[in-house]
Amino acid sequence: MNTNKIHIVDTTLRDGSHAVSHSFTADQAVAVSEGLDKAGVEMIEISHGDGIAGSSLNYGFSKQPEMELIKAASGVIKNAKLTVLLLPGIGTIEDLRMAQENGAAAVRVATHVTEADIAIQHISWAKQAGLFTVGFLMMAHMATPEKIVEQAKIFADAGADYINLADSAGYMTPEDVRARIAALKNAVSLPIGFHSHNNLGLSVANSLAAVEEGATYIDATCRGLGAGAGNTQIEVLCAVMERLGYNTGVNSFALMDVAEDIVEPLMQRPQVIRTDSLLLGYAGVYSSFLLHTRRAAEKYGLTPREILVELGRRGMVGGQEDMIVDVAYELSRKGT
Amino acid sequence: MNTNKIHIVDTTLRDGSHAVSHSFTADQAVAVSEGLDKAGVEMIEISHGDGIAGSSLNYGFSKQPEMELIKAASGVIKNAKLTVLLLPGIGTIEDLRMAQENGAAAVRVATHVTEADIAIQHISWAKQAGLFTVGFLMMAHMATPEKIVEQAKIFADAGADYINLADSAGYMTPEDVRARIAALKNAVSLPIGFHSHNNLGLSVANSLAAVEEGATYIDATCRGLGAGAGNTQIEVLCAVMERLGYNTGVNSFALMDVAEDIVEPLMQRPQVIRTDSLLLGYAGVYSSFLLHTRRAAEKYGLTPREILVELGRRGMVGGQEDMIVDVAYELSRKGT
Description:
Chains A, B: One of its GO terms (molecular function) is 2-isopropylmalate synthase activity. Chains A, B: InterPro entries: 2-IPM_HCS-like, 4OH_2_O-val_aldolase, Aldolase_TIM, DmpG_comm, DRE_TIM_HOA, PYR_CT. Chains A, B: Its EC number is 4.1.3.39. Chains A, B: This is 4-hydroxy-2-oxovalerate aldolase. The structure is a homodimer. By secondary structure, the first copy, chain A, is an alpha/beta fold. Chain A folds into two domains: 7-266, TIM Barrel, CATH 3.20.20.70; 288-334, Helicase, Ruva Protein, domain 3. Helices cover 44% and strands 13% of the residues of chain A. Chain A contains 14 helices and eight strands. Chain A has helices at residues 16-19, 26-39, 66-74, 93-101, 120-128, 145-158, 174-187, 203-212, 234-244, 252-263, 275-283, 289-300, 304-313, 323-334, and strands spanning 7-13, 43-46, 81-86, 106-112, 132-138, 162-166, 192-195, 217-220. Chain A has an eight-stranded parallel barrel, surrounded by eight helices. The N and C termini of chain A lie far apart (56 Å).
């Protein structure tokens, strides 16, 4: 058993933002952050779903500017590190500087699992600016454990405080997680974190598998709010970890109350596994593909299933959303 | 890897009945059964949620008599075994005879995990009547692997065709499941099955763990419909098992359609993990306690959480619902 302190990272106000169409208000950010902080959560991530400066036509506009949300949340947090997500190419160092001015104390710099090198300057800047800095590898199912170790070392050399692996598509099984976390633990001296999606109904089990292999930072959200089928449900994960005897420092009963009393009322739909998100996990494609896939399916008289499975077969990655229409067109021609 | 044929058992029309207040109609039973049968599901369980003859003031009245549902479903099933659940003490051999006359081809005789002996006569009768007969141990987390082996042998001696273990409270972790299934595989020559609840978000992972240890019959329901936080979501489980290369014989895409097009529209609430059902799994108490607990909590000014955790601490079992009020009364006196 992993007897280290397990640090719980809540990303309701960041990844969860996808599931409410980026509609969080400052009042909501305050209520959620305050509840999480009092429950003992150590890092509270708040940003547009696609990271700071994600508010756009392409990724969806935020209802209220995220800097206002960050500032409001920072006013009520007493112990947790207020954290932002930064995707180089979407957000910039200037955006990060503004987030820090508004109260952010930590940043997670996220890249596709094979593109850590585009984050070197952001991680270096963040460390020098005094931020707690995390290197975050997305779509980790698309790379071997060896490739992941290579990429993690780039983050480590740039100065990251820990390395976070993300199963962004909710594709992995516990064995997939074990192989990747174990490889990182063997090769990198930094703490390791894990971020899961529930598309295959495995997010809690995958998080437990990560911890068993030595991961010490675990992402989760209230009610599992998040892209696709959602993230690991924080109140469930923490209750299980409490019963298993892990030292998380959080009060799982308090988290249950935050989830039920504060987050559930602001949800736009229940966080369940419907066919579309199940297929995202089954095919291993990014959840941002879903909306584009639905549109393309309608346009070309296909099912989203046909398109998603083909995207997975081709190993399409985030940023290639424009190609979904091409794939749909090709599939529709084959069918005639 | 378990290379045996994995038999998928759907219990949407039985355990799922709890989640729709036992309101299934014959038309719904026909639509669900036909869809499951065409998708390749091998056993389709249909009964009141608490087994045949469960319709009552205590367990909730069925909207339409279950024998009518059984008869209607039997008219459309071509390959699957139409299955009923029988809890000795609730249903009788006479009820089972009627179910067989209406088309049931299999029965699962269920007892508390330490009370297999009360099912001997039912199992013997069912075998002699030509039914495919299953011995089903509920609340399996409350007994050690050794005790479970002892109880399974009682079923085996009575003539059961396979032994099914049920994590009725959704309490188990994958390791709990592995220990119990492995012990059964070592000690009993019959096939082993597993039935999971999702109160701790672990039902898919627990089902995979069961199969890895040699279980060959796995229960699940469309959309996870079921008591408490629901059962293993069949379309999710089958998609994962398909990707992992297991031989289930089911078409997981067809199951996704049954779940989304037929079952989802008849659901009364989304099958998510809310605080009450999370606490059932955390405390390890039976889901039928929930309604009684809510009522007792209101009556004595307590939270359901306080009562459920105390019930788990006392090891209360199904049938002791009447004692919930006493426990609540004691707790309320302590608080004064």
